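Researcher: Structure prediction, please.
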Amino acid sequence: MLDQVIRTAPPQDSPLPDRIKLPFAFDPDRLCADLDAVDRDWIDHLVKQNYEGNWSVLPLRHTAGATHPVMMIYSDPSGTEFVDGPLLAHTPYFREVLAAFRCPLTVVRLMRLTPGSVIKPHYDHDLAAEHGAARLHIPITTNPDVEFLLNGTPVTMAPGEAWYLRLMDTHSVVNRGTSDRVHLVIDAVVDDWLSEMLAASAGQ
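Model: Predicted structure follows.
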């Protein structure tokens, strides 16, 4: 979805909470091994007014026809066909992780926030399950001094966990630690399978 200029989103009414931990436990060591295989040529996030420092992206899945790296990292809301990017060929465990989500996947990216960097408060237009689009986060590397705020409340996510976050609400991140924070970020279509998982996980 398109990132919005810095501002606070109005409160949202939703049948689901703004954060849901999903029933997955992926292997942090295997996630890191795949990250190591492609840890180069990061691309600066396009919406520079939304951050300070270094927030960068590696495309794993993107809109069909995109060949330039900048277009590969862009989450085009009008896209109708998505394809695996060349980096996925070097990341067998990432492919295994993506296959665990039995719903249509659109854009998939690695997103890195380096030490001392800040993602300012912002929101992503219509990026919520009730609008048919879910963004899922799987931490690969993080540290105790990373603070992710969603609606002003921290979300603590550990490596290997999977989380749904309603990012049409205001959120921000700061990395006050000494190591990179890297997440596997999956944009998914909310079909019956994902809708049922979100509802069941929210009730736990």
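Model: The CA atoms of residues 102 and 193 lie 7 Å apart.
Researcher: Thanks, that helps.
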